[in-house]
Amino acid sequence: MNFPPWLQQAIQARLDEVSAQIEHDPELSRVREEKDEAFEGLFAGKDIEQTPEYAEWESRYIVSKGIENERLYMQGLRDGIQLTVSLLGQSMFEETNAKADQTINANP
């Protein structure tokens, strides 16, 4: 299913907005700092993948990506529900008006 260009632009704008909010989240910033510190410890060892520093960095990287993905998913879910409710509400409003118009036109 292809979305109209205006809807694609609206979705992209919302994704950009949510990504920017997540980027400046204090908890995620702390996790990223810890991940970066762990990454810096990687360069002390020769066989990087076998060092405890690498395991520490990898662990923190996975956690930070997990938090980012979870927040993006949850915001997308909230946005999707909100959009669905709005569309259903508009649809129900139009149906009610159409039925009211039919009743008025049927009883002149």
Q: Main attributes?
A:
108 residues; mainly alpha; 3 helices; 82% helix
Which spans have pLDDT < 50 for at least 5 consecutive residues?
Answer: none
Would you report the number of β strands? 0
User: What does the main sheet amount to?
Assistant: none
Report the portion of residues in β strands: under 5%
Helical content class? over 70%
- Overall 3D shape: rod-shaped
| Secondary structure category | mainly alpha
Radius of gyration: 25 Å
Number of helices: 3
**Helix and strand pattern:** HHH
Q: What's the arrangement of secondary structure elements?
A:
Elements: H1 5-23, H2 26-40, H3 52-106
Helix pairs in contact: 1-3, 2-3
Task: Give your account of this protein's structure.
The structure is a single chain. 2% of the residues are buried. Helices cover 82% and strands 0% of the residues. It contains 3 helices and no strands. α2 runs antiparallel to α3. The radius of gyration is 25 Å and the shape is rod-shaped. It is an all-alpha fold.
Quick summary of this structure?
This protein is mainly α. The protein is built from 3 helices and no strands. It has helices at 5-23, 26-40, 52-106.
